[in-house]
């Protein structure tokens, strides 16, 4: 369902709200957070945050392509949930260790937290749907 309560037809992974939100959040991470990390974090926090933020929409897209395989789709959703959690921890570290903009970090943490819950609900809904159709 979309924000107005109407059902949305899903024709592509791009139609999934969780994909849209994590893609937009990744752009914010790259433009607003990563440039503010110190050079000393280039091979640690910077790289880890960059990889996890990029991985989430990619995993959703790849998993969607394998949605006909219950176990395959499930694995990608589980991996995306794990990357959401990893991204949250990295964002909180950036905020708490380097005083990166608290407001932006808190908004991003909220997006990734919500996205993790959406991925979990999608996982449950998909497994029920697949049982009904097989």
Query: Which overall shape is indicated by the principal axes computed on the Cα atoms?
Result: elongated
Order of helices and strands: HHHH
CATH class: Mainly Alpha
Proportion of helical residues:
over 70%
Overall mean pLDDT = 90
The biggest beta sheet reads: none
Quickly describe the structure:
Pfam families: 23S_rRNA_IVP (PF05635). The protein is mostly helical and 134 residues long.
Structure description:
The protein has 134 residues and is an all-alpha fold. The protein has a single domain, classed as Up-down Bundle (de novo design (two linked rop proteins)). 74% of the residues lie in helices and 0% in strands. The protein contains four helices and no strands. It is elongated. The chain starts with 16 loop residues before the first helix and ends with a helix. The model has no long low-confidence stretch (mean pLDDT 90).
Helix/strand layout:
Elements (H helix, E strand, L loop, with lengths): L16 H17 L11 H21 L4 H29 L3 H32 L1
């Amino acid at each position: 369902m979309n924000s107005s309560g109407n059902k949305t037809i899903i024709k592509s992974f791009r139609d999934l709200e969780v994909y849209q939100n994590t893609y937009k959040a990744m752009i914010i991470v790259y433009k607003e957070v990563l440039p503010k990390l110190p050079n000393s974090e280039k091979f640690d926090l910077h790289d880890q945050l960059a990889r996890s933020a990029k991985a989430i929409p990619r995993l959703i897209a790849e998993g969607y392509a394998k949605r006909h395989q219950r176990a395959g789709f499930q694995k990608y959703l589980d991996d995306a949930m794990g990357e959401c959690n990893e991204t949250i921890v990295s964002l909180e570290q950036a905020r708490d260790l380097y005083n990166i903009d608290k407001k932006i970090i808190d908004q991003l943490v909220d997006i990734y937290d919500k996205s993790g819950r959406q991925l979990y609900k999608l996982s449950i809904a998909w497994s029920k749907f697949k049982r009904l159709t097989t």
